Amino acid sequence: MRPVLVGLGKSTNNAADVTLDMFGRRLVYFIYDTILHFLAILVLPLSFFRALRDGEPKVFFQRLGFLLPQGIPEGSLLLHGVSVGEIVALRPLLKAIQEKHPSTSLIVSSTTRSGRKTAKRLFPGTTVLPFPMDLPWTTWLYLKKMKPSAVVLLELEIWPNFLRNCDQNSIPVAIANGRITEKSLDGYRRVQRFLPQFDKIALYCVQNEAYAERFCALSVPEDRVHITGNLKFDSLPPTIEAQSPWKDWFLDASLFVMASTHSPEEVDILSEIIQDPDMKSLCIAIVPRHPDRAASLFSKLKSLLGARPLFLRSEMKEGEPLPEGSVMLVDTFGELEAIYPSGTVAFLGGSLIPHGGQNVLEAAAAGLPVLVGPHMGNFEEEMRLLRGIGALQSGATPTALLRCLKEWLKQDSLAEEAGRTGQCALESGRGATERTRVLLQEAGLLSPDS
After folding, report:
1. d(Cα 101, Cα 334) in Å, to the nearest integer?
2. Is residue 2 part of a domain?
3. pTM of the full predicted structure?
4. Structural domain of residue 273, as residue ranges?
5. Using one digit for the tens of pLDDT, what is the confidence trace for 202-217?
6. Which of 118, 241, 323, 326 has the greatest number of C-beta atoms within 10 Å?
7. For residue 380, is it within any domain?
8. Same domain for 398 and 435?
9. What is the arithmetic mean of pLDDT over 363-384?
C-alpha cells in the first residue's frame, strides 16, 4: 500500500478574516492560559506529593522544564507517546530510524509513569523523559533546553502551547500513526480556527482513509495527509510458542485471559462465570490495566470465588501445574505479551465501562480470538477488521460475553481457528513503519543518511 493523498482543506484568504482569526486566537490562548494557571495552583501541590509518593520528584520538576538531563545532543528527534500503547507502537519506527539514520539522536517522552517505564525497558540507551505540562513557560523552557530538530507525536497527542512554541522556534512537528475519533473531530471543529493550530503541523501519517478524511475536515492541507497504515501491526511480536512458566502452570487447560481490565469488569465477569457449571474447569488469568489495584482486587476475588483456587502471580513458583479452574491475578508489570501464547480466548478490558477499550491487536497476533464489551471507541478500525473475519465478538453485558466465550470453547478447534484467522490478517497488514520513515525523511524531519 503506497501513501495516498486525500481531501483538500480550505484556508482563509480574506484580510479581515485573517485579522479576526489572529485576534480571536490570541484571546483564546489568553483564556486557555488563564484557566491552566488557575488549575495549576490547585493541582501542582497534589502532583508534587504524588511524585514524592511514587519516588519520582525529579519527574515533577522535569514536567515544568527544570532538572532536564545535560549532554543531550542539540538537534535530537523527540518522539512522544502518551502512554504504554503508543510507546509500544513506536518500537518499530524507532528501530528503523536507528538503523537507517544512525547519526540521528533520539529522545522518547511519555506522559504517564507506565509509559516511561515501558520506554526504558524497550529502548535501553535512549533518553526517556516526561512530557511537559502545557503551560506556556513550561513548554518554552522544555524546548529551549532540549533543542530538538523535530517532534513526532504518536496518534493525536496535541497540546496547544507545546505546538505553538514549536512553531515559534521553527521546530517541525509530525503526527505518526494518526487517528481521530468522530467525537474528537466534533470537538475540534468547534474551535479549529483558534486552538489548537492544526495547520502548524508539517506532516500527518494516518492509519486509514477515514482518519485522513477527518483531519482534512479540520482544514489540514491535502499534501500533508498520507495514509500509511497502522504502526501497531509492525509492533506486534512474531508468533511464539507458549513458554515457561505459563505453559507449565496451565499445561493444556483452556485459559481465559482477562487483559487490561478496569474496575468493576473483573468482578462482573467472574460473577457470571462461577455461576455456570460448564465453566468449573476453565482457568483464568486476570491482568489489570493498573497492577497497583491487585491488592484490593485480590480481597474482592477471594470473597467472590469461595473455594475456587486463587493465586497471586508474584507468589507463584515455577514448574508447578495449577489445579483446574484456577484463577491467577497478575500483580506484576509487562507480562501480558508472555501470557497470551498460553491462552485460548482473550477479553480486552476498558470495554464494559465507558473507557474506550484497550488494544485488541496483541491478543490477536498471539492467535487468540478476542471478546470485548460495547465501549470500543478508541479502537474502531482494529475491531472492525477482526470482527469482519470472525476473530472478534462483542457483548453488551457480562452475560452476553459469557455466551460468546462458551460458543468458542464448546469445540477445541473453534477458538483455535478463529485465532489463526486473526493472526494471518494482522501479518498482511504490516508495512506502516517504512512508509512512515520515508515520509518523515522526505519532509525533512530525518537526516538523509542511511
Report:
1. 29
2. no
3. 0.74
4. 246-428
5. 999 999 999 999 999 9
6. 118
7. yes
8. no
9. 93
